[in-house]
Design brief:
By secondary structure, the chain is an alpha+beta fold. The protein folds into three domains: about 200 residues, NAD(P)-binding Rossmann-like Domain (Rossmann fold, 3-Layer(aba) Sandwich); about 100 residues, no CATH class; about 60 residues, no CATH class. It is built from 13 helices and 22 strands. Helix 2 packs across helix 13 and helix 3 runs antiparallel to helix 4. It binds uridine-5'-diphosphate. Uridine-5'-diphosphate (UDP) binds next to helix 6 and helix 7.
Length: about 400
Amino acid sequence: MYQTIVIGAGIAGSVVARQLAEEGGRRVLVLEQRAHIGGNCYDRRDAHGVLIHEYGPHIFHTNDEGVYEYLSRFTEWYLYPQGHQVVASVGDSYLPIPFNLNTLHQIYEKDKATELEQKLIAAFGEGSRVPIMELRKSEDADIQNIAQFVYENVFLKYTMKQWGQTPEEISPEVTARVPVLISYDNRYFQDRYQGVPTDGFTAMFARMLEHENIDVQCGVEATERLTITQEGVLLDGQPFAGEVIYTGALDELFSCRFGRLPYRSLRFDFEHLEQEDFQNGHSVVNYTVSEDFTRITEFQYLTGQTDCDGTTIVREYPFAYSGADGEIPYYAIQNEENESLYNKYRALTENIPDFYLLGRLAEYKYYNIDAMTRKALELAERIMEEKK
Ligand code: UDP
């Protein structure tokens, strides 16, 4: 009775399911391992009525008008009036992150800061975005000085906590997500739209999945329902003729037969405090030189909720994913070795007819919400095109 099976009800699965159901007119079965939809964007009210992000802070930001319009079919937005802003707790100060000209003026005295500002502008151009690993290559002694400050106070310890490796050891694309900005822009992202769904991500995904052609089953382990063979997929032991879109971890689909794909995981330590404010209006404070956690998020400022009684915060403690029950693989650790292991698994899927991999887990990539939405829209388009 179903023409399409989607494994996973996160961003990737929800978008592709909606498109194939609505545009492609298919009957779609979505199987979700967890007890809820929304993947790691899942949010809910805690025992104190505060809207929290169960799997860490998720912020939607994009310049992709198409993606913004698409998601806006399912939600209204709380767009941050000043954009999303992050500070780093360093000693007694809060420093604007990404490091930018405001940060520069905060740490150097006026004349020196002005001189350095001119140098940075001359070297990289006003408004440019310079990855820390690029800034460190500068041969100018003053710029090297700044680079060293930023490296030590923003990147080194945070990255060691987050990845268990130095900024040199991880993929340069990761630290380049947070470049040094040669401007007075304190926003964490430079995208036009930045915010969260007004009534939460879960509500947005619920509306997306609410379609007459979609059935969602939560709490279902896909590997218990599906058998993957080179000839095709069996659903409950019967050959399944339609397409299957898999958004879970690829190694697990094959019982980790070549070994586990490495991921970083996180432990979230939530705390509700009977006080109005915890971090002086800041939604996210990064702990870049001290503490064992990477950052503290204060949810009322992340979500714009104004009727909180008290405030709820979360601390994030990274660790190496081991695959143990209850652990969640959050971040693929992209490097040559891991990618070649990933490719061995992917090769096992290449000849399976109508079988598609989509998402952070299934593609072993670091996607933002908007890029993931775009990718899912494109895959749905491609499937419908192929099956015309
Ligand atoms: N990073 C850092 N210090 C910071 C912010 C980011 O060292 O204050 C580095 C760190 O390696 C991190 C990466 O930049 O993993 C990307 O940061 P981003 O905020 O994009 O990570 P996410 O929010 O996706 O966890």
